[in-house]
Amino acid sequence: MTPFQVEVAIIGAGTAGMVAYRAARAHADSVLLIEGGAYGTTCARVGCMPSKLLIAAAESAHLARHAHAFGVNVQAVTVDDAAVMARVQRERDRFVGAVLKAIDGIAPADRLTATVKFKDANTLVTEDGQLIHAKRIVIATGSVPVLPPVLKELGAHLLTNENIFELPTLPTSLAVFGPGVLGMELAQAMSRLGVQVKVFGVGGGIAGIQDPAIREDANQTFNKEFYLDASAEVKSAKETASGIEVTYLHRDGDWKTEAFDYVLAATGRTPAVADLDLENTGLQLDERGVPDFDRSTLQCGDSTIFIAGDASNDSPLLHEAADQGRIAGNNAGRFPDIEPGLRRTPLAVVFTDPQVASVGLNLKQLEQHHKNRFAVGVESFENQGRSRVMLRNQGTLKVYGEQGTGLFLGAEMFGPAAEHIGHLLAWAAQQRMTVSSMLDMPFYHPVIEEGLRTALRDLNQKLNLGPQVVEDCMDCGPGT
After folding, report:
1. How many domains in the chain?
2. Which end of the chain offers a freer environment for a tag, N or C, measured as fewer CB atoms within 10 Å?
3. pLDDT tens digits for 218-234?
């Protein structure tokens, strides 16, 4: 077989890989995009989009069941399991189709379907033994689910995000291991669609929430809908002919063995680098086998290898993967002319109800790097006007500011419209706005964002930059 000779090889055709290809192609004449699995990106096939389709169906059922609180009576709400999953799969396939169309737009000579390993820092080899000599290489291989030991022996009744959206109908019961972002989103969605759900976690974490008070608020709120033990003790999970039997210590103090149709492993993902033979590159690798890299350039050490997306284990989110792909692709394409790329203010959203959002520096980071140099503004949504109007008056917002400068540093929120408020706060943080300048911005009435203004006013007062907060101030309008 004739070896490939290319300027840039990109391993992985997910979001990071495709963006890296476009970026590198703007600088280099020969770029090869290599994919060993299914095309379609994690987000479109098994991540963001199918999960949001399931959440949308669950939200519709939940609103119908609770319409009576508004004086609207909806009789006999039923869920057509097959129709729900058919729509999830149909719309998922549309999103995947758009990605495949983009792949088809890449010249066939620039694409290779194969799994590859590193022979050395500038040479890849396919499973058939074909060599690819590349002056620069971008690793964009994504990530794969991680299974805890208690679940590793399970077979047909074990689900991950890779196969749960292929179910023809909804299960009757589901044990979810891992109350992280994916676990909480899918657990609540399944519960609202009528599935009997129990969620088991280790270490007390819930949906990535850092603030202990907000996390406890979330814990109590979710437990009103379904069983959640974020610090569970599980003795075993055994497969039976019809499902899975889980033996666990119930919160009431008794050991119980309960049968479930399926177990969903939502216990995290790890960079998909184990099969790349990265030890042949001479790069310094961390405990997960990921090369050390410069976060601003995505260059691994001083080599001609770059890394992007979930493979880097740095902010595994779609917009971050796209940014990393762009930075890595640009730098691989124009090497040795390497430039730092734009890394945006951290922004993460969890699409539970209430939603979770985190922006900028979180509480743990603040206590490490700004200890005794920051203040916290707080707002509860329990009595916030617009939230009460919509019966979405649950949750808490905390905003953080720097003492002395008044600089807005970050926020964490569990509450209504967190996806939108999170964006406003991320823009403010990236513009390095002060809390006072944020309060100079317009706030309409009545909107949920008025709760943000209340939190910012509380923060400004604690920073000694604003007046004492006035209870029931009428310039804010009633109920804010």
Report:
1. 3
2. N
3. 999 999 999 999 999 99
